[in-house]
Amino acid sequence: MIYSAEGNLGYLVRGLLLSSVLFVGLACCPHASAAKPCLGQGEPRAVFVGDSLTWGHGPRNSWPTKLAGMCGWHEVLNDGRGGTGLFANGHGTSASYINRVPTEVAPFSPSIVFITSYFNDTDHTPSDLATALAALIDAVHALPTHPTVVVTGIYDPTGVNGAPYTQIDPALRAVCVQRAVPFIEPRTGTVYDSSGKGTDVGGPWITEANKAHYISDDGFHPNDDGLVYVAQRTFDAIQALS
């Protein structure tokens, strides 16, 4: 089934229903062109593991599919599930990130996997989150396709960019350095390469000055403008890594 993508990126998304919340999106972007191949990936099979912030407004209108349009990627699986995380499982209605690796990530045979958002896990300690992230990265790296892994933190929807993000981000970043995985830090706008070297790319993603423009009325999720904005900030980040 072919859908017209919402937004102004000029691509189509084909949604193939795999379960009640899981689609494979084939983003066709004839007019999109990156300044250089995103992360050196010409035609990757990309998976975005995440929560409702990743899922967005569905397969036609999410920041991963908009990012795919910017990068010219054609095979993208948005594995965002509401209420999930490194530990969170949607109050028992879904599966945490690591438990979706064998059932949803592996069958797609990805060449690159984005691990996105810990928003539903902020009630856990930074140490516990770091341990869980390490296990998740190891599980993804162990897949037969040995995909590239990129980890992103989460923006602070209040725009304050303080606790608990200031405690969690350094713990996750340390794990990424140990496993030679890039870390994108929306709280500061810093992009860390696989060696841990940081580059400032535009400052914090969400601030008290711009949150009203990009965050929806629920105070957490990006609105339509926010989806485009998050895609653009992620694009800029991975261009800095490429």
Structure description:
It is a single chain. With 242 residues, the protein is of the alpha/beta class. Helices cover 31% and strands 19% of the residues. It contains seven helices and ten strands. The chain has helices at 52-55, 63-71, 97-105, 126-141, 165-178, 211-214, 224-241, and strands at 2-4, 12-17, 23-28, 45-50, 75-80, 112-116, 148-152, 183-185, 190-192, 198-200. The protein has a ten-stranded mixed sheet, sandwiched between helices. Helix 2 (63-71) packs across helix 7 (224-241), helix 3 (97-105) packs parallel to helix 4 (126-141) and helix 4 (126-141) packs parallel to helix 5 (165-178). It is globular.
Distance between the termini: 33 Å
Number of structural domains: 1
Compute the number of strand runs: 10
Portion in beta strands:
15-25%
The CATH fourth-level homologous superfamily: SGNH hydrolase
Low-confidence stretches: 1-35
Broad shape: globular
Major sheet, described briefly?
10 strands, mixed
What's the CATH C level? Alpha Beta
Secondary-structure element pattern, one letter each: EEEEHHEHEHEHEEEHH
Give me the secondary-structure topology.
Elements: E1 2-4, E2 12-17, E3 23-28, E4 45-50, H1 52-55, H2 63-71, E5 75-80, H3 97-105, E6 112-116, H4 126-141, E7 148-152, H5 165-178, E8 183-185, E9 190-192, E10 198-200, H6 211-214, H7 224-241
Parallel strand pairs: 4-5, 4-6, 6-7, 7-8
Antiparallel strand pairs: 1-2, 2-3, 3-5, 8-9, 9-10
Helix pairs in contact: 2-7, 3-4, 4-5
